[in-house]
C-alpha cells in the first residue's frame, strides 16, 4: 500500500484495528486467569482476576471515545507519541499485574511488581496528557487560522 493510499484511510478505520487488538487482549487476559487458576491448584489472585479490566477499561474505552468524539485523531499533533506511550503504559500495567499475580499465587514476595504498576500508571497518564495537549494545540492552530 502506498503512502498516499494510507493517508486516505479514515481515522475510524485506523482506530478499528487497535480496538480489536485490545478486545482480543481482554479475552486473552480472561483465559489466562482461568488457566492459571486451574494450574495454580485453585489459588487465585486479585491481580490476575481483574487483569482483563486494564485492556477493557484502559484500552478500549479511551480508544473508543477517541474514535467517536475526535475527528481525524491521527492528525492531532503529538498523536504518535501519545499513542506509543499509551501502548507502552498499558503493556507495563499488564506485565506488572501478571507478575504480581504470579508472585502472589506462588506464595513468595518481590519488591519489583509495585514499580511496574507505578511506572505503568505514570506513562499511561502521560499519554493521556500528551493527547490532550495535542488536541489543545490543534484547537489553537485552527483558531489562529480563522
Record the SSE blueprint:
Blueprint: H1 3-7, H2 11-39, H3 46-49, H4 53-69, H5 79-106, H6 113-145
Structure description:
- Helix 2 runs antiparallel to helix 4 (53-69), helix 4 runs antiparallel to helix 5 and helix 5 (79-106) runs antiparallel to helix 6 (113-145).
- This protein has one domain.
- It is elongated, with a radius of gyration of 18 Å.
- The chain is mainly α and 146 residues long.
- It has helices at residues 3-7, 11-39, 46-49, 53-69, 79-106, 113-145.
- The two termini are 35 Å apart.
Sheet with the most strands, sense and barrel status:
none
Count of discrete alpha- or pi-helical segments spanning 4 or more residues: 6
Provide mean pLDDT, rounded.
87
Tally of strands: 0
Record keyword descriptors for this entry.
79% helix, 146 residues, elongated, mainly alpha
